[in-house]
Amino acid sequence: MNCVKFDHATPGREVARGLFNLVQGGRSVSDYSIEFRTIAAESNWNASSLLDAFYNGLSDRLKDELAARDLPADLDELVALSIRIDCRLRERRRERVFSVAPQAPPLPSAHATEQVRGGFSNSSEPMQLGRTRLPEAERQRRLQDNCCLYCGQQGHLAFSCPVKDRAHHSSRGRW
């Protein structure tokens, strides 16, 4: 009985295919160069071919940066230059992220805080939802003057406040 044996492709072709298909992608040039050199070590390509293959695998962003410069004639120099440029571009991107990040709104000043807290008057405006509690001094004044703790008017208490009752019914809505 004859055995059919499947063998791998010629190792030289696999290495060549690996070098042709290798790209930087989103990783750093440093990581790309390590993988490139690992595969290139198994090839029998000359220095010029390795330099071209390395350059072709770089990201477009890096190629754009290299376009404004004279390309080194040596693979080691191209790798070193590419790593320096890549590090600077990544550093700049981090700077942009931090400088564009939304800043926290400014904290209210002591004067603005005092206006919110002490802004209660003897008007008939009812207490609104989301407002802070009555300051203790205002609460004591309303209790001494027999005023409603909700709206500040005299003649009724908070549990029977007509203003509170109207606000409660209007906020319910109808189905």
Automatic annotation (TrEMBL):
The keyword Metal-binding applies. Residues 104-128 are annotated as: Disordered. The keyword Metal-binding applies. InterPro entries: Retrotrans_gag_dom, RTL1-rel, Znf_CCHC, Znf_CCHC_sf. GO terms for molecular function: nucleic acid binding; zinc ion binding. Residues 148-162 form the CCHC-type domain. Keywords: Metal-binding, Zinc, Zinc-finger. Pfam families: Retrotrans_gag (PF03732). This is CCHC-type domain-containing protein.
